[in-house]
Amino acid sequence: MTTRHSALLRVTHWLTFVAFAALLVTGIELIISHPRFYWGETGNSGTTPLFRIPIPSSRDTVPSGYNYVLPDQNGWSRSMHFEAAWILVITALVYGIYGVTSGHFKRNLFPVSGQRSWQAYWAVMRKYLRRAPPGDEQSYNPLQRLAYLAVIFILFPMMIWTGLALSPSFNAAMPWFVGVLGGRQSARTLHFFFTILLVIFFVVHVTMVAMGGFWRRMRAMTIGGASAGEEESA
Amino acid sequence: MTISRRKLITTGLAAAAGVTGLGVMDRLARSYGLIPPDSGGVFGPGETLTYAAQRLLTRHSMAREFSRSQISPKPFPNALAPPTDAFKLLQAGGFRDWQLVVDGLVERPTVFSLADLRSIGVRSQITEVVCEEGWSYVAEWIGTPLSAVLRETGLKPEARFAMYRSYERGWWDSIDLGDAQHPQTFLTMGMNDGDLPVPFGGPLRLRVPRQLGYKSVKFVNHITVADSMKKFGSGQGSPGPDYGYSWYAGI
């Protein structure tokens, strides 16, 4: 019996999910302490924000427009944010090394030849839009490959980059790291934008899994069910 | 499913090697000062990884300095407790009677006035204050490098940390000797060409520009050099970890 996802993929997938969930929840808590975003190097309650999120704040120094202050959750949120970030980075390293050495990236993620065209992407898109029932594809379709590649090679690396660019100590060692982003506050704002893109991916991803047969897909990604085609014939 | 004897032995050996490896790493990390005082608890592994990684990577690096034109026209002082009567009295006297006690593992425990500190040498830097909440501002900070003050008092060989207290009761923190002796760690008395205003920590604030704002304690009046942070407060280097705020705030 061949499983759809190798054990290493299944473990790193869920470690990533746990770290992502922890980072998202604690990140929201941290934003609540200052729900204002700026562009450039500096920005604070005395300067004009690029935009602000219309929610109450956990600090009475923030002009939130609400006459009450939420409880401060930053202490544990910060600690958990960075611990989860470490889990994510270590998991990503293991996954990345595996992805290259096992041929996982090449075999399952990079678009196969003949599918690197707008027509190929459009064909899948049309299928989605027609809400055609998912077939029992043995491998990811070109649009899926593109989405996963973007998450793995653009969104997560940019999250780590923009996150590290918020560290005063790291910026001391590598000033260009924050410099090319346009400054510290730009890095914070970009960190927020990339979060939104990851959340959009997450929602679409879970929706697709649900539409493609939630429990079967869950089994494949947890205990390691057989690949779709084999299951049909079994 | 049967587990072969060979598999059992190799797994056992691998586990033993792993545990020994962790033990060796732990001992190495301790001897190179890579374990923070708040390395216990659920978030201990994360705090330790961050502190060790940043110490290895950034030991000698300098915080970014900015040009005069980048100084924020609107610095933000953050909230403060109302000053006590004793503090107001000192303020009325132009802080001439402000005292900074430096004691602990130093060769010559000394009490410095602000004038004493100025006579050691005054320098300036234009660096950013970065709050853990996310906001920031750039200002010029004028003061005496802590390293110069510690040269005056001399350090005992077993010195590892500098613990610093605020005039405001219950407010204290600490940094490792690497940060204490870092050229940008200032006992700050001036800001943007004037005296350091009280809302920004005047008359004396310890600026630690490679860490977040909460490490730059305002109204500093007592520095104690120590070999370990175990005997202060809950033993985690500062009151912060009691509320979840990490001792090391380089990120």
What does this entry look like structurally?
The complex is a heterodimer of chains A (234) and B (251). Chain A has 234 residues and is mainly α. Chain A has one domain (7-233): Fumarate Reductase Cytochrome B subunit, CATH 1.20.950. Chain A contains ten helices and two strands, in the order H-E-E-H-H-H-H-H-H-H-H-H. Chain A has helices spanning 7-32, 74-101, 104-109, 118-129, 142-164, 168-173, 175-179, 184-211, 214-221, 228-233, and strands at 36-37, 51-52. Chain A has a two-stranded antiparallel ribbon. Chain A is elongated. The termini of chain A are close together. Chain B is of the alpha+beta class and 251 residues long. Chain B has one domain (65-243): Oxidoreductase, molybdopterin-binding domain (Sulfite Oxidase, Chain A, domain 2). In chain B, strand 3 and strand 4 (136-145) form a beta hairpin. The longest helix of chain B has 27 residues, at 5-31. The relative contact order of chain B is 0.17. Chain A binds chain B through residues 30-31, 33-34, 36, 38, 41-47, 59-61, 74-80, 82-86, 164, 166-173, 175, 178, 184-185, 188, and chain B through 42-43, 45-47, 49-50, 54, 57-58, 61-64, 66, 70, 72, 74-76, 78-79, 128, 130-138, 209-212, 240, 243-246, 250-251.
Percent of residues in β-strands of chain B: 15-25%
Q: CATH homologous superfamily of chain B - what is it? A: Oxidoreductase, molybdopterin-binding domain
Helical coverage of chain B, percent range: 25-40%
What is the class of chain A in the CATH system? Answer: Mainly Alpha
